[in-house]
Design brief:
Elements (H helix, E strand, L loop, with lengths): L1 E4 L6 E4 L3 E3 L2 E3 L5 H7 L7 E8 L3 E7 L7 E7 L1 E8 L10 E7 L5 E4 L3 E7 L3 E8 L8 E3 L22 H4 L8
Antiparallel strand pairs: 1-2, 2-10, 3-4, 5-12, 6-11, 6-13, 7-10, 7-12, 8-9, 8-11
């Protein structure tokens, strides 16, 4: 696997080595020893999966305090535009984001440490998204940042009229109010 640093400290794109032949392909999607050598120790405790239709945006979510989560995300069917926003208040990149296309074809993974809000936009008819987390979900600690916040100024790959949000995500707070 190749571990690619992004312009924001802590965010990594992971490119797997894919071995293809007439039967299909094989790849290692996670190897603890290699991950910890390249990125650092992260004790993943749970795997989650979601399915979304074209234009669905889920996010920008995070959990506060001791409930914060690191995530290792990937797509197993379809294609998404995945985004992580730096919400570490003392960071020189506070409010900046990195976006990466994840798909069943490129098999990329995106590591998002604690201290980031996260979301993804389904770019295919159906997208099956899976991710590892290092902390349990805590509804009382969950927060949402409004993805249309002009202080973040996300450059979307789709027209705004194509993007669908849940009521909870539509009511997300502005970055300056977290």
């Amino acid at each position: 696997m190749e571990y690619l640093k992004t312009e924001i400290e802590g965010l990594w794109i992971i490119e797997p080595l894919i071995i293809k032949d007439e039967r299909g392909y094989f790849m290692e999607s996670y190897k603890k020893s290699e991950f910890e050598q390249k990125i650092g120790k992260t004790d993943f405790i749970q795997d989650n999966e979601s399915k979304s239709s074209f234009g669905i945006f889920r996010g920008l979510h995070f959990q506060e305090g001791d409930a914060a989560q690191a995530k290792l995300v990937k797509v197993i069917q379809g294609k998404v535009w995945d985004i992580a926003v730096d919400i570490r208040k003392t960071s020189s990149t506070f409010g900046k984001y990195v976006a990466v296309e994840l798909s069943e074809e490129n098999k990329r993974q995106f590591f998002i440490p604690r201290g980031f809000a996260h979301g993804f936009l389904a770019l295919s008819e159906t997208a099956v998204f899976t991710y590892k987390v290092d902390n349990i979900y805590s509804p009382v600690h969950e927060r949402t940042i409004n993805c249309t916040d002009s202080d973040i100024a996300i450059q979307w790959p789709l027209d705004q009229s194509q993007i669908r949000l849940s009521e909870k995500d539509r009511k997300g707070k502005l970055l300056k109010d977290i």
